[in-house]
Amino acid sequence: MAAVHNPPSAPILISFPDPDALVDSLASFIVKAQKDSVDKKGRFTIALSGGSLPKMLRGLINNPAVKWNKWQVYYVDERVVPLDHPDSNHRACTEHLFSKVPIPSENIHPLDPSLLNDLEDLSDSYEKELIREFAQKDSARFPVFDLILLGMGPDGHTASLFPGHELLSEEDRWVAYVDDSPKPPPKRITFTYPVINHAARVAFVAAGKEKADTLKSILDDPEAGLPSARVRPVFPGQLYWFVDDAAAEKVVYPRTPFKL
Ligand SMILES: O=C(O)[C@H](O)[C@@H](O)[C@H](O)[C@H](O)COP(=O)(O)O
């Protein structure tokens, strides 16, 4: 009998009056994803982006529902700089979140700082870090993160997947590198689409009117093919957009009220 392939579910767009309102609901959403995962398998695998995202996770600080010792944290993409460099996503997440909560340091998976001079080795070693978490358990072709949190750049990029880049068609590797990122710094490692699109839940977080045109293209004209529009988790994965009204101002795509 031929396999039945369910199409990806439609994205769920949730818009908040301002970023502060978004922060609290985002925290509740993450805690719910954590609870579902921990109830099912005793751990919670999450991948974080850089940019403005780390600051938007402040609703998790002093939140008694977060089981920090169950979290395994990876980076969706990382700039190839020392871990304490101002450009480092790991540094941003540490400053805005990890330094303020009781997460065991061994539950956080930054890139290997001894490999910064060799992009190939660096991305291979990060892929092995994912294989240690995921592949041995169920020999998965691709890892299934419980939650991946993404940002969207004004050009429509997400992770370090930029418009027109050859990595947009990568189908095999889990982690790849770029040395020509148009957003500085130029050297980065990044999850590929197969990893992002196999997650159980993927949530974009985007705020501000400078994102309004791009968000409209992504949600109202996905066929235009901007990198963020290519995030379509395979069934039964679900895609969410947590945005503010300024970012959503031009979007016609229907909003869904926030509920857990
Ligand atoms: O390290 C990075 O540069 C990112 O992970 C990147 O993909 C980011 O999420 C977007 O550029 C959005 O950034 P903002 O949220 O700052 O607009």
UniProtKB/TrEMBL annotation:
GO terms classed as biological process: carbohydrate metabolic process; pentose-phosphate shunt
Molecular function terms from GO: 6-phosphogluconolactonase activity
Keyword Magnesium: no
Highest taxon of the lineage: Eukaryota
Pathway: Carbohydrate degradation; pentose phosphate pathway; D-ribulose 5-phosphate from D-glucose 6-phosphate (oxidative stage): step 2/3
Keywords: Hydrolase
EC nos: 3.1.1.31
Domain Glucosamine/galactosamine-6-phosphate isomerase as annotated: residue spans: 17-241
Matches recorded under CDD domains: 6PGL (cd01400)
UniProt catalytic activity: 6-phospho-D-glucono-1,5-lactone + H2O = 6-phospho-D-gluconate + H(+)
PANTHER family, per database record: 6-PHOSPHOGLUCONOLACTONASE (PTHR11054:SF0)
Similarity section: Belongs to the glucosamine/galactosamine-6-phosphate isomerase family. 6-phosphogluconolactonase subfamily.
Function text: Hydrolysis of 6-phosphogluconolactone to 6-phosphogluconate.
Protein name per Swiss-Prot or TrEMBL: 6-phosphogluconolactonase
Taxonomic lineage from the root: Eukaryota, Fungi, Dikarya, Basidiomycota, Agaricomycotina
